[in-house]
Amino acid sequence: MKLAFAEVTGWGKCVPPAIMTNHDLATFMETSDEWIRTRTGIEERRVSAVGTSAMATVAARNALAAADLDPAEIDLIIVGTCTPDEIIPNVASKVQQDLGAKNAAAFDLNAACSSFFYAMHFATSSIRIGMHKKVLIIGAERLTRILDWTKRESAVLFGDGAGAMVLEATDKEVGLLSSKVSCDADARDVLSLDFGMSFDRYQFDGVMPFNFEGQEIFKRAVKGMSAAVEGVFKETGLAVDDIDVLIPHQANKRLIDFLAKMCKVPEEKTMINIQKYGNTSSATLPIAYCEALETGMVKPGDSIISAVFGGGLTCGAGLIVWGDRVTPLQNNQMELEQGADQSALDLILPLFEGSKKAWEARGK
Asked: Which residue ranges does the record annotate as region ACP-binding (predicted)?
């Protein structure tokens, strides 16, 4: 059986209009711009007034426009997210409905921050063995709705957004050519949000227990991503000198700097946009790809290394060889129409007050 490759032919993003700066956070939280920037590299993040599926749909429309595809041509939709609008039905089915992609199978994938890369890994595999021809993959999160806004250690890190790609079968040796995904489940509890089947909805007081052990997460992220990147180099026979661009998960500026040093990629060839959006979990990678293309960082034929790490603890890395086209075939800059009249503080302050009252009721 002849294997195909999976070329990225379309890309698009959706970032909500409401911007929450570090200075905004300092108006209701014991923190400062300097405290956040020096520890994370984050200066601002976006806050969505609409659900995950709405952002995912806008990003998907932009990706389809870049590929100049009719939604009916898509035969599979995968949405990576850990913040779905609802448990049932899935976000992907809503995106399918909104796009009119009636010929597509649709499912969600939750590997936390690694979700989009996991989706690319499995979508590429499906295309290579001939199961699908044109796949839409999306990473979308509305993290600001689930955070405990009284906890600065975690609340300052995250933001909302979505990004998408179209993968199409091709005979050209491009796309995701090598990838490694894994899970360090022994430490799965160092990053967790208790809102599953064990959650007592009758006792819910507005606070979802969010465990975030930053130092342990950082240590395991370094170990996991390093091993994944080294595995990709070993499989492909490439060396660090062969890499043109590094596009990593945007979780922490120090972690990005470590990866760049390990891969010997200079800062000008490392995509960094965490300062604008914070950690948007599964959306960071596709948003970063979109901006790398928009700024001219990615050129035709470039060899790109991506690495991700997320709750679970999931991990992955891959080599993507870009195709010939780095510009969209149609305008892919559509934006959210809802929520433009609300500021980030308008959206977040009620959540902060709710969390504070819940903790006070608990006597903490």
From this structure: 250-254
